[in-house]
């Protein structure tokens, strides 16, 4: 059954943490770009539950709102921190196993095809993160899945689809026009000389394309 408790009213900008985790860098980039970010994902497969909990506590202490923090993979950490957001990867619990335990948590799922997105939505995901769209340094040697597959996924999926993978501000408009309802970035902000200025550029491009769609 599709969960429709969360409605999409504006395009979303997600920041995904780097791996291996660099907490000072995560905090500095997140705080600089915070006015333009909707969500910040704490993602590193090497982190233990205790480590992830400590990162989230550091984020909260630095002034990042809990509502903007997305716990990646670990349902136990999400419950322990009373998180508002949990994102499940391919190796995580299945959505239909996590959904009954997640209560009112906004639940996302990483997908790589139309079929995966449709199934995730049917199993209770509130949004899907599709990627990687373009060639990405995070996925060396793997070609991007392209705009046609993103469009097909967004058209078929009954919950919002976010896009990830090699997205720069100048490509953001076409991503939104393909039907995506947001984007997620890693190096686009972590390697930016001015993360706040770069986040603003993403936000401005998203908003312009979003208004064209309405």
Task: Please describe what this structure looks like.
The protein has 214 residues and is an alpha/beta fold. It has a single domain (12-213), classed as TIM Barrel (Alpha-Beta Barrel), CATH 3.20.20. It has 9 helices and 8 strands. The protein has helices at residues 23-33, 49-62, 75-80, 95-102, 114-123, 146-156, 169-177, 187-190, 195-213; strands spanning 12-16, 39-42, 69-72, 85-88, 106-111, 127-131, 161-164, 182-185. The chain has an 8-stranded parallel barrel with strand order 1-2-3-4-5-6-7-8, surrounded by 6 helices. Strand 3 (69-72), helix 3 (75-80) and strand 4 (85-88) form a beta-alpha-beta unit. Helix 1 crosses helix 9 and helix 7 (169-177) runs parallel beside helix 9. Residues 1-7 have low confidence and may be disordered.
